[in-house]
Amino acid sequence: MIIRLAFITIFVWAILRLIQFGRLSFDLASLVLFFIVGLFAISFSPFLVESIANIFDFGSPGVAFVALIVVGLTILCLILSVSLSDQKRAQANLVRSIARIELVLRNSMPKN
Amino acid sequence: MRVLFFIPTFNDQEGLEDLVKELIVAYPSSTILVIDDGSHSRICLETTSPQIILYRLPINLGLGTSTSIAIDFGLDYGYDFFVRLDADGQHPVGEISGLLTPLIEKRADVVWGERRNQTLRGSHRQLMGATVKKVTALMGRWVFGSSVQDWFTGFFALNKIAMNKAGKAYLVRYCEVQMLSLFYENELIIYSHKIDQFERNYGTSSIGWLNGFMIILRALLIIIMHGIGMAPR
Question: According to the model, what pLDDT value does residue B122 have?
C-alpha cells in the first residue's frame, strides 16, 4: 500500500511539474493522469486485479517480461507526449509571432 | 474608447457576414478582427470597411493561438477593451453594451457573458455540454469560490489589465477555462453578465461523449493547476 501510494504520488508530482514547466500539454497530461489514477483505483479491487492478471497471464514466469514491456511503453509514451507538446507549443508560438508581424505590416501599409 | 472585437472562425462562413454588418452599424468606431483558424475553404467577407481586418492562419491551431494573436494585436495598437464573440451568430450584439459597461465604469477587469438558456434536455450533445459545464462550475466554485456557471462561453470582454495577463500566457486549444482560471489566480475583478444565447443556425456543436469527457478532464486539471499556483508561465 505504501509503495503504491509513494509511486502514484511521485508519478503525479512529476506530471504536474512537467505541465508547470510547459513541457506537457494539458490535453495529454489529463489523459495520462486519468489512466494512472484509474489504474491506482483499480488496484484496490481484488476481483479486477485478478481478472486483469488472468488476461495477461500474469501467473506465469513471463510476468516480469510483460511488466518490463509495460514500464518501457509507459516511459516511451511519456517521452513522446513531452516531445509532441514541445512541437505543438513551438508551432503555435511561431505562428503567433508571424501573425503579429504580418498584422503590423498590413496596418502600416497605405490603404488605397 | 477604443474597442477591438475579435471573432474567431473555423468553417463558420454563413453567419459571419450578418454579424460583421451588425457590429459595424452598432459600433462604427470599433475594429473587427476576424481570424480564420485554417478553415477548409477560405473565409471571405463581401462587406468592405476599414474597420474589418480578416486574417487567415495557414492551419487549424485552435482558439488559444487565435486568441493570443488577437490579444497581441489589441495590446500592440493600444485598444482599451477586447470583446470576443463567436462567428456563428449565437451571441446577441445587443448584449455587448452589458459586457462593456462595467469595464468602462472601471468596476471590473473581466466581464463574462454567461449563457442562462442552457438546458439539460434535448440531444446527447446538449446533455453532454450541460454536464461539462456543471462539473466545471462545481470545480471552479470549490477552487476559486467562483459563482460563474458557464466557464465555456465564447462571449466575454477584457480591459487592458486582463489583456496583459492573458497575452503573457500560452493559451491551449479551448482556452476559456484557462483564461478564467488565470484571471481568478491573478485576483482580477470578474463580473458575470447573463445573456440569452440565440439558437444555433449554422453547424453543430463539436461536443460528443468522448470529446466531452476529454474537455472535463482538461478543465479540471487546468482549474486545479491554477488553484495550487502551478500553472505554466
Answer: 61
